[in-house]
Amino acid sequence: MQFPFLRVLSGVLAAGTAVLATVAAGTVLSTSAAAQHFTDPDTLAPYYPSPQAVVERMLALADLKPDDTVYDLGCGDGRIVITAATKFSARAVGVEIRSDIYKSTLGRVASLGLSDRVKIVRGDALKTNLRPADVVTLYLLTSSNERLRPILEAQLKPGARVVSHDYEIRSWKPEQTERIMVDGRFHTIYVYRMGSEKDTKRK
Ligand SMILES: C[S@@+](CC[C@H](N)C(=O)[O-])C[C@H]1O[C@@H](n2cnc3c(N)ncnc32)[C@H](O)[C@@H]1O
Predict the structure, then answer these.
(1) Element (DSSP H or E) covering residue 11
(2) Is residue 162 part of a domain?
């Protein structure tokens, strides 16, 4: 399994070295900003978008139906919630902790004329009411999924699906796991279905 976040993080940790000191000032600033965000205990993952082909496959594997409601926890530029609305006729809620990303994604959704189907919320995924969700999508770290797991177990209704890009939910048994190659890199998609505790948890 590949760990793109860890590659990002090692780049972030390298900030301040003599090598990076020679990089253009704008790049150093944005790298420092990423480092600052990632050391915030509320931050579940740095910003790193899923490729569009992965987004579409995640939603197809989730068996997303028209008028289902999908929550993307850490929605970044909104590509998952926008695709849910435009290609699957679903309703979608994107939750984003970073105010800069939240503002630009909110603007993007409005400019696409999707505000009636796609809601962008500035907030913490760990404090979001997930009871209305039919599908939850994640592209976070395994350790972050571990923090979300009890919330998902407490709030999601039977039959709801949780789809995670690259990072599994430990102690849950996936209904499906698919690996797809995009631009020369393998991506793994884990699909979980909420049922009885017996169905979801590993034996
Ligand atoms: C790896 S990106 C995934 C973006 C998008 N879901 C995708 O797959 O393209 C993770 C996103 O989660 C956001 N994030 C991190 N911690 C969060 C939290 N506690 N609540 C909401 N968003 C968070 C980050 O700012 C970032 O935009």
Answers:
(1) helix 4-13
(2) yes
Beta-carbon count within 10 A of 192 CB = 24
DSSP type of residue 125: G
Q: What range defines the domain where residue 87 resides?
A: 52-200
pLDDT tens for each residue of 107-117: 999 999 999 99
Task: Examine the domain organization and report whether 74 and 22 are in the same domain.
Answer: no
List alpha helices for 77-196, DSSP H: 79-88, 99-111, 142-155
> Is 116 within 8 Å of 91 (Cβ atoms)?
no
Which residue's CA is minimally distant from atom 9 of ligand 1?
Answer: 49
49 lines ligand 1 (CB under 6 A): yes
User: For 167-182, how does the pLDDT look when each residue is reduced to its tens digit (9 = 90+)?
Assistant: 999 999 999 999 999 9
Is the beta carbon of 102 within 6 A of some atom in ligand 1?
no
Of 38-42, 62-66, 189-193, the least confident: 38-42
pTM across the whole model:
0.85
Summarised one tens digit per residue, pLDDT across range 111-160 is 999 999 999 999 999 999 999 999 999 999 999 999 999 999 999 999 99
Quick check: CB of 187 below 6 Å from ligand 1?
no
Local structure of 130: helix, strand or coil: coil
Out of 12, 39, 98, give the residue to mutate to test ligand 1, the one with the largest number of ligand atoms within 8 Å of its CB. Answer: 98
Residues 31 and 81 both lie in one domain: no
